[in-house]
């Protein structure tokens, strides 16, 4: 017998239906707008000013090597500037009287926000002043999200173009992503969130009356503006330590649903952009269908695990309510957690560490899938396109034909790049987790001072941390102290390598595909817009990514769930 009653179940189904409706209404206009944004030859006045400031010729496109160099240089400068801003916080205005951020924590945070991970090994309201939040973290929320979008666009151009040595201009793409897409949408979203009760002020503190009638001091700040881009850019870093579970950051059930819609909007709409830019919108629908299947299975599994929750307490509470806000409930929390880990958002409106063992495995598994359903802004699209290339290669082997995708031959070079892309995440996750328990000095530090819940759950906490870092998600099993001398730099390295190594491989793949001609469609060509290919792509995604982690999952959440 399940703990969730019929009324609660219907309310949960209603939330999902409303979310699907919102995304369906936005899919076509948002997707077509982004396609026009990255194909238009017209430059806005503010964009031309930015190009002059950067010394960039907007008419000059770049090879994949030049595109990658510009992206890496920009990101390196972003890391250094954000690190410097944190280290000099005590000297800056709007510091709220807070000291400089410690060295390792500043490094970890700089790597985190530059890589769109937004992992937070600190309590934001006790560590970061308003200037660092606005001028450092929020700025990176915009540009790191834009970097993900432009890499996806570069790969789409590689598939769409024929015999060319260029894939666009990084500086033009970055500027347009920020000016035309992220800034206006974030401004609108912030306004709606303010109307919904999210705080937006430069005052550092305010007063409130507690349930006992006492006057208490509460931290305040420019929350709505950061909350908007936090979700829209699939960033996830909260203004408060409780993230989207905090009443000043996410006051009501409808603001929670709005935030879920924001974090899914661009990744979902990019499938329409993809279909439009390659000249066959059925291809975008096939990718969207694959994402929808994976997301639906994950949501049902997580909701069931959290609703059924064995024991008397979950039955009486209507589900496993530990670590969850009453205003969101079990199903609202499962929906938020599923959406934030199927994307690379990392925001939470409940504590994943308090989920049931098998329920908590689902956010972990979502990240291990590569966050491709629908994934982060841009990152989800280029991730699933890499898997689509692997899928057509597998299909070609099965029928004995040279594999092709959208008329582009998938040869040894393309497969090497795709295979390396797939291997980066598991290598970082498994090696990082193994070293945390294998190196004697590190093991004692991790198990003795970092893990609050020793045993199987404690192992899962470390595994979750490296999975979140390497896949640039940012959510956490909060029972782990991740600001230690080992975990802070180790997770920073995982975030940097997990972000930029795949990006370079994707850009190399884009350049290789763009240089090819286009093969004509024949009777032997595998149709990549039909349900058969959707099923193949779902299977490849699960087999190639998720099963890689099966042994380590059996040692953590699966074993804990069977106890």
**Structural class, judged by helices and strands?**
mainly alpha
Which regions are unreliable across 5 or more consecutive residues at pLDDT < 50? none
Roughly how much helix do the residues carry, as a percent range? Answer: 55-70%
- How many extended strands? 4
Percent strand: under 5%
Q: Order the strands across the largest sheet as they lie in space.
A: 1-2
Instruction: Choose one word for the global shape.
Output: globular
Average pLDDT metric: 92
Q: How far apart are the termini?
A: 20 Å
What's the main sheet like? 2 strands, antiparallel
Summarize the structure.
Helices cover 65% and strands 2% of the residues. It has 563 residues and is mainly alpha-helical. It has helices spanning 6-39, 45-54, 64-87, 103-114, 124-127, 130-160, 170-195, 223-232, 253-277, 281-308, 312-317, 329-342, 357-368, 379-399, 412-438, 440-450, 456-470, 487-514, 531-544, 550-555, 557-562, and strands at 205-209, 215-219, 404-405, 408-409.
């Amino acid at each position: 017998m399940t703990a969730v009653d019929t009324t609660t179940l219907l309310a949960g189904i209603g939330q999902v239906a409303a979310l699907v409706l919102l995304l369906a209404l936005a899919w076509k206009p948002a997707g077509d707008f982004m396609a026009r944004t990255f194909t238009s030859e017209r430059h806005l006045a503010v964009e031309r000013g930015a190009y002059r400031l950067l010394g960039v010729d907007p008419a000059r496109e770049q090879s994949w090597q030049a595109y990658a160099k510009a992206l890496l240089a920009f990101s390196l400068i972003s890391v250094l500037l954000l690190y410097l801003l944190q280290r000099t916080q005590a000297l800056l205005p709007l510091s709220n009287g807070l000291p400089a951020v410690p060295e390792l924590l500043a490094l970890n945070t700089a790597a985190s926000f530059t890589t769109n991970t937004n992992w937070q090994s600190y309590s934001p309201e006790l560590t970061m002043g308003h200037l660092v939040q606005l001028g450092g973290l929020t700025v990176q929320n915009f540009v790191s999200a834009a970097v993900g979008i432009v890499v996806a666009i570069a790969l789409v151009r590689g598939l769409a173009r024929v015999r060319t040595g260029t894939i666009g201009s990084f500086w033009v793409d970055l500027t347009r992503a920020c000016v035309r897409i992220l800034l206006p949408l974030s401004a609108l979203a912030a306004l709606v969130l303010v109307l919904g009760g999210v705080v937006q002020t430069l005052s550092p503190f305010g007063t409130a009356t507690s349930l006992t009638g006492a006057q208490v001091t509460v931290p305040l700040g420019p929350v709505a503006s950061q909350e908007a881009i936090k979700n829209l850019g699939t960033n996830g870093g909260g203004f408060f330590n409780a993230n989207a579970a905090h009443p000043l950051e996410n006051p009501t059930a409808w603001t929670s649903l709005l935030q879920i819609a924001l974090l899914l909007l661009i990744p979902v709409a990019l499938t329409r952009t993809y279909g439009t830019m390659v000249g066959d919108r059925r291809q975008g629908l096939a990718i969207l269908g694959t994402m929808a299947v994976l997301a639906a299975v994950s949501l049902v599994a997580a909701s069931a695990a959290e609703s059924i929750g064995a024991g008397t307490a979950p039955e009486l509470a209507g589900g496993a309510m530990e670590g969850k806000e009453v205003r969101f409930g079990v199903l609202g929390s499962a929906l938020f957690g599923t959406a934030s880990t199927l994307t690379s958002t990392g925001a939470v409106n409940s504590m994943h560490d308090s989920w049931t063992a098998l329920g908590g495995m689902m956010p972990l598994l979502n990240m291990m899938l590569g966050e491709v359903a629908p994934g982060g802004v841009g990152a989800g699209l280029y991730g699933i396109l890499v898997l689509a290339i692997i899928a057509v290669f597998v299909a070609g082997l099965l029928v004995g034909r040279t594999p092709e995708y959208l008329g582009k031959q998938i040869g040894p070079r393309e497969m090497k790049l795709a295979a390396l892309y797939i291997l980066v995440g598991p290598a970082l996750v498994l090696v990082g987790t193994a070293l945390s328990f294998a190196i004697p000095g590190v093991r004692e530090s991790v198990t003795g001072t970092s893990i609050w819940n020793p045993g199987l759950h404690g192992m899962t906490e470390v595994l979750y941390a490296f999975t979140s870092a390497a896949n640039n998600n940012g959510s956490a099993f909060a029972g782990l102290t991740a600001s230690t001398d080992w975990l802070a730099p180790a997770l920073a390295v995982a975030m940097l390598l997990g972000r930029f190594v795949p990006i370079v491989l994707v850009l190399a793949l884009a350049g290789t595909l763009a240089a090819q001609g286009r093969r004509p469609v024949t009777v032997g060509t595998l149709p990549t817009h039909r349900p058969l290919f959707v099923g193949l792509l779902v299977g490849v995604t699960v087999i190639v990514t998720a099963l890689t982690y099966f042994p380590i999952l059996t040692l953590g959440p699966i074993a804990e769930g069977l106890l």
